[in-house]
Amino acid sequence: MNALELFGVTKDFGAVRAVHEVSFALEPGSLIGLLGRNGAGKSTTLKMISGLLQPTAGRVEVLGRDVAKFPLETRRDVGAMPEEMALLDMLSGPQYLRFVARMYGLDTKTADARAAELMDRLELLPPRGTVIADYSFGMKKKLALSSALIHSPRLVVLDEPFEGIDTVTSRTIKDLIALLQARGVTVVLTTHVLEIVEALCPRVAIIEKGRLVGFGPLDEVKRTHATLEGLFLELVGGHRKGELSWL
Ligand SMILES: Nc1ncnc2c1ncn2[C@@H]1O[C@H](COP(=O)(O)OP(=O)(O)OP(=O)(O)O)[C@@H](O)[C@H]1O
Ligand SMILES: [Mg+2]
Prior knowledge:
By secondary structure, this protein is of the alpha/beta class. It has nine helices and ten strands. Bound molecules: adenosine-5'-triphosphate and magnesium ion.
């Protein structure tokens, strides 16, 4: 059984077709980097995978189950870090993680223990009682990542997990992602940093104007192109623009 499969997934926002008949399948333990330019449809695709958005057409299956038909089961299986981190600003980090974990049915003791372990590992150590509203951008990112992992999901969907993250923590997050993969967890992530994908993801998917234009093992890319950047620019167009008229 595949961990994740998309069958002709399409999403329209009014007249805008954000995602256009995207299909692919990932077996358990896959780690894939989803690449694409701004507005290509990455976040929209991830939101449909995690059940935050309904496709206009097509369907998503997580562990063989149709996400639209089994929303609650999907929530338990999926850990998502969406683009807009919907955190509860007036709670502290540990309170928020306890809340999320309790929603997933964990008991308070387990929730607090996992929250403490995650915050320690990610070096998210604000002064006691600091509310999320007062967290820095990177701290919020770390908290969102923690909340995506606390219920031991089988599929983890991370929208730009490295954005705004310091170099030391980036290393930690890469290690965590590699650990998830080693444990058979399937990970889908987006980033604009191709070097991260090259170092971390055995497989890449490239989306352009809502369509999947590239999908395959990084090894194959390496056979035909010196760098992932070369392939990326070839697939999504790398024309340099001219000068600005007034400069
Ligand atoms: N809620 C929405 N309502 C209307 N249009 C939307 C909505 N969400 C996304 N879109 C549109 O869908 C398209 C794809 O957006 P999406 O956020 O998926 O891109 P992205 O690949 O994640 O880009 P980025 O790299 O900038 O994060 C864009 O044209 C965007 O304007
Ligand atoms: Mg996005």
